[in-house]
Amino acid sequence: MKIQWSLILALFFALITAVFAVINVDPVQVNLLFGSVSLPLILLILGSTLLGGIIVGAFGIYRGYRLQREVKGLHAKLVHIQEATGYVFPEPEKPERGKKKKSAGNEAEAGAGAESAEEDSPIQP
């Protein structure tokens, strides 16, 4: 759900930026360190937005890479500790697929039915 909201906010921001850029089409002087350039303001706005998005995206990729390295390091430590101590994590209980859980009342009825079925059986061990 968080990704959907992020996408909606990004699209909303892109729409506002595009409308703002289209309204401002007059040429402006941009002073650089080595000279000046005359550009339409729409290109300056869209270029700045694109450059900002690239910087934020690069930072996000770097952060994900750093976190992935940390996870790998912690996993290696965990394996080392498990080998040194012999500890094994207990497996979580998984319910069987396709079978409904029996409630306490149903188990008593099922148990009573099984006992009466054993009594009625013609073959006795």
Automatic annotation (TrEMBL):
<dbReference type="InterPro" id="IPR010445">
    <property type="entry name" value="LapA_dom"/>
</dbReference>
<keyword id="KW-0812">Transmembrane</keyword>
<keyword id="KW-1133">Transmembrane helix</keyword>
<feature type="compositionally biased region" description="Low complexity">
    <location>
        <begin position="105"/>
        <end position="115"/>
    </location>
</feature>
<feature type="transmembrane region" description="Helical">
    <location>
        <begin position="37"/>
        <end position="62"/>
    </location>
</feature>
<keyword id="KW-1003">Cell membrane</keyword>
<feature type="region of interest" description="Disordered">
    <location>
        <begin position="89"/>
        <end position="125"/>
    </location>
</feature>
<dbReference type="Pfam" id="PF06305">
    <property type="entry name" value="LapA_dom"/>
</dbReference>
<feature type="domain" description="Lipopolysaccharide assembly protein A">
    <location>
        <begin position="24"/>
        <end position="83"/>
    </location>
</feature>
<protein>
    <submittedName>
        <fullName>Lipopolysaccharide assembly protein LapA domain-containing protein</fullName>
    </submittedName>
</protein>
<feature type="compositionally biased region" description="Acidic residues">
    <location>
        <begin position="116"/>
        <end position="125"/>
    </location>
</feature>
<keyword id="KW-0472">Membrane</keyword>
